Fold:
Amino acid sequence: MGSFWGTAEEERSDAELLAAHVAGDRYAFEELFYRHHRQLYRLAMMTSRNPDDAADALQDALLSAHRTAASFRRDAAVSSWLYRIVVNACVDRLRRNKSHPTTELNDDNCLVGDHTPRVDTAIMVQRALMRLPVEQRAAVVAVDMQGYSVAETARMLGVAEGTVKSRCSRARAKLAEALGYFDATAAVPDTRGAMQ
Structure:
């Protein structure tokens, strides 16, 4: 039996897979991709404007990661390196496609059969996120939704920690204002109805 079918080997780390890819292992990058695909796609969806842009940006990012793997500096986690490449691909795609018109989401566009409060909240948060400038969105998604530290996010985005803090602060203020607006408008009909 060859090594593939031999005794169970320990699962290789991300860094080992990347090093194996650079050394010529044809399957190492594929394994790395499948290990992180779901999280990276979710990140692309949160950063991009639509599923097509997210899929295209993710493909661009993975091609870039595949080609530039040899330049990976081992001063960060491989997952952080991949995250940064995906965010940068999304930002680049959004900048290139500024001619794409932004369409306002409304209930007619969101065909949801069961309008539970949880679904309504998710829609409102998504709307508010999509209104943020892409740099603020990338920072707040990384820190508040993906759980990366400010320092990790700064390394991934290639900016200073203070810049990440500033972008997150501005994004949170805009999100709070937008979500407060949604909350206030949702409460108005109930209050008026109760007074009549």
Observations:
- Residues 161-195 form the longest helix (35 residues).
- The CA atoms of residues 94 and 137 lie 12 Å apart.
